[in-house]
Design goal:
Shape: elongated
Strand order of the largest sheet: 2-3-4-1-5
Structural class: mainly alpha
Number of strands: 8
Distance between the termini: 63 Å
Strand content: 5-15%
Length: 686
């Protein structure tokens, strides 16, 4: 065969060439359309140079029965043969003295016969290197299996751009729509080629909007099984049992990867393990270990095809939603009580399927399930800044109103927490109306919502009492609530001039726990201790060490509390110009994350920094925008609130520029603050 370009396959090519040798058969295994045949052609051309008789390709796709395998091989070797000698015997006679690479393409439908032939070849034909392609392994002793998976994102884009170029269309490889399209088909080479060919008539937006229809369209040339993705997958499904087909259809309700427990929950019949493993053997399901856990996934074209052939998946979707509610409950328990990082990582791993489960609940108007999902994911939403949970809570509230029922208290509390991030403090007050403040002292969940309201209303005594009660209740857990309330207590204390050393000791004591989040909190405590001891340089260095930790090690939400703590060192005890640059960076992080309540606090510090260089006008507009959004800087203290002190410092400037500032959204105010601070800041000195 002639060599053909195979972008993104250098690793597989090197592996195949390295393992191909006398006494072994190499089998390239993968789903239909994954590019096994093209890879086989390339490998054959490369290996053939090292063999006296080159490489011979045997096309088995057109072979109709096991009896036709040996005649097909014999034809590829030149045909003919001794009179009265069977084709299989003649093949072995020819190959015993040959020095050749024997390429057996598409062996899956005659697998047993090809396996027996290869077994005989490796035992009796020392100069022959058999290389086969199949959806499943041959299953013989002297076999090396090389799984062929999808192309990586960069290689998929390269293939798409190249094939579109063949059709006379020049595409920009940096176009985000192109990467999205390649991702939607999971880097399946056949799908990429089919879609790229259609760019001559259709835009990328057109292809993205109706992907399945375009995948099913035949191209004018090519073998029947490769004329469309549907044809290739129908070929791949040939020979599966009814149970395997039923399981494959049920698996289409998953998004991303899933584990064996999820398969058992969704399958709809007892013990689907054997069927799952057979689908993996046929390359219709991809096994993908994550750490010590076995996980599986469907390539997106396989999922689209199998779902399209299913009459009804409603029962599987319901089982899927119920299962992932259980998964969320387990992960939430880890996050809240035993292992914060493990809970966060578990939710992150299952998040794609959580989205699907929530979509099912919304479709079925399942208020109870939706409320449960919001409750289990609320702390994850805060820790990892997953703003879509805010939308789920809003949907649940709308559904409760439509059904004429009172939403659960915990749902109202979580929705209030989320609305505070968007500056909708009127909604916060409305959602929390009627909830007994005493409940906030007994429950971390309810206390979290009441704390938001009291914090921004300036009720310092009530807010700090809620935090102190939670810290006493969560003592020693090192879990979400203890860390989050501890950091809030630290931030609040600094804002109102308190220095509760006990909080520092509390957070520092958690540093030994096997949790990156605990380590970051302990670093924040150590930095604050140094600040209070007038070791400004040491405080800044320790803050920076904590900020440099990967986001997943400190919870993105927790890490956003650190930049506002760090600049507080700078305006009070350090260079205000240095502080300007630091606060600007903090504003960028908060705005990029959509954490507008954190941004509001940064705007207050920005205003204080900008007053001194004489930019009272900008400072006044920032403060007015923040107040209009419903955010005061912090709770009041005996000496007055921080907002009050800032307003006093601004004096008449706030009155003169208030109307301009209140017309700014919190996003616009952040943009103005970043520009003003960077204009006045300078690179930090070493």
């Amino acid at each position: 065969p002639r060599p053909r370009s195979v972008p993104g396959r250098s690793t597989e090519i090197d592996r195949i060439v390295g393992r191909a040798g006398a006494g072994r058969v190499v089998t390239l295994v993968g789903v239909g359309g994954i590019g096994k045949s093209r890879l086989l052609h390339h490998v054959g051309a490369r290996l053939g140079h090292d063999h006296d008789d080159g490489a011979v390709l045997v096309e088995l796709a057109s072979v109709r029965s096991d009896d036709d395998v040996a005649p097909a091989v014999l034809d590829a070797l030149g045909g003919g043969g001794a009179e009265g000698r069977a084709a299989g015997e003649e093949v072995l006679v020819r190959l015993r003295s040959a020095d050749v690479v024997l390429l057996l393409d598409n062996a899956e439908h005659v697998l047993a016969t090809v396996a027996a032939l290869c077994d005989e070849i490796v035992r009796s034909c020392p100069g022959v290197v058999p290389v086969a392609t199949s959806r499943a392994r041959l299953g013989i002793g002297d076999e090396t299996v090389v799984p062929i998976g999808p192309l990586d994102p960069d290689a998929a884009v390269d293939v798409f751009v190249a094939r579109a170029g063949d059709a006379g269309v020049d595409l920009d490889p940096t176009d985000p729509r192109l990467r999205a399209l390649c991702g939607r088909v999971d880097g399946l080479p056949l799908a990429l080629e089919l879609l790229a060919a259609r760019t001559r008539l259709l835009s990328l937006d057109d292809l993205l909007s109706d992907l399945q229809r375009h995948l099913d369209r035949a191209r004018p040339h090519g073998q029947g099984r490769h004329r469309s993705v549907e044809a290739a997958l129908r070929w791949s499904l040939d020979g599966v049992t009814e149970g395997e087909r039923q399981l494959l259809e049920a698996l289409t309700v998953f998004a991303g990867s899933f584990d064996l427990r999820a398969v058992e929950a969704v399958a709809g019949f007892a013990d689907p393990t054997d069927s799952l493993l057979e689908l993996c053997e046929r390359s219709l399901v991809v096994a993908m270990p994550v750490g010590r856990e076995s996980r599986f996934r469907l390539l997106e074209p396989v999922r689209l095809f199998a779902a399209d052939t299913s009459a009804a998946l409603d029962d599987a979707r319901r089982r899927h939603a119920d299962h992932y509610l259980d998964v969320l409950a387990d992960a939430s328990e880890l996050l809240d009580r035993r292992d914060l990082d493990a809970g966060l990582d578990r939710m992150a791993l299952e998040w794609a399927n959580v989205r699907v489960a929530v979509a099912t609940m919304l479709h079925e108007r399942d208020l109870e399930g939706l409320s449960e999902a919001v409750g289990h994911t609320a702390n994850y939403a805060e820790a990892r800044l997953a703003a879509e949970v805010h939308e789920w809570a809003d949907h649940a509230l709308v559904l409760a109103a439509e059904l004429g029922v009172e939403p659960r208290t915990d749902l109202r509390v979580h929705a209030a927490r989320f609305r505070s991030h968007h500056g909708d403090m009127a909604a916060v007050d409305e959602l929390l109306d009627g909830i007994d403040p005493a409940e906030g002292l007994r429950s971390s969940v309810i206390g979290s919502g009441l704390l938001v309201r009291d914090w921004y209303a300036g009720r310092a005594d009530v807010a700090l009492a809620t935090i102190d009660a939670a810290l006493e209740r969560e003592a020693g857990t090192g879990a979400y609530w203890e860390l989050s309330y501890g950091l809030l207590r630290l931030a609040g204390a600094g804002a109102i001039g308190e220095r509760p050393v006990g909080i520092l000791d509390r957070l520092a004591s958690l540093g030994h726990l096997p949790s990156g989040s605990s380590s970051v909190a302990a670093a924040a405590a150590e930095a604050t201790r140094r600040w209070w001891e007038d070791d400004v340089a040491g405080a800044v260095a320790t803050f920076d060490t904590a900020l440099a930790a990967p986001a997943r090690l400190g919870c993105a939400g927790f890490r956003l509390l650190l930049p506002p703590l760090r600049p507080r060192v700078s305006p009070v005890l350090y260079d205000r110009l240095v502080a300007a640059a630091t606060i600007a960076d903090s504003l960028v992080r908060g705005a990029d994350s959509g954490a507008w309540s954190i941004v509001a606090g940064d705007l207050g510090m920005a205003a204080r920094v900008l007053i001194e260089p004489g930019d009272a006008a900008t400072a006044a507009r920032l403060e007015a925008a923040r107040l209009e959004a419903g955010y005061r800087a912090s709770p009041a203290s005996a000496t007055g609130s921080v907002s009050g002190r800032l307003e006093a410092a601004l004096g008449g400037a706030l009155d003169r520029h208030h109307d301009q500032g209140r017309l700014l959204t919190i996003e616009q105010a952040a943009t103005q603050a970043i520009g003003a601070l960077r204009a006045r800041g300078r690179p930090e000195a070493s």
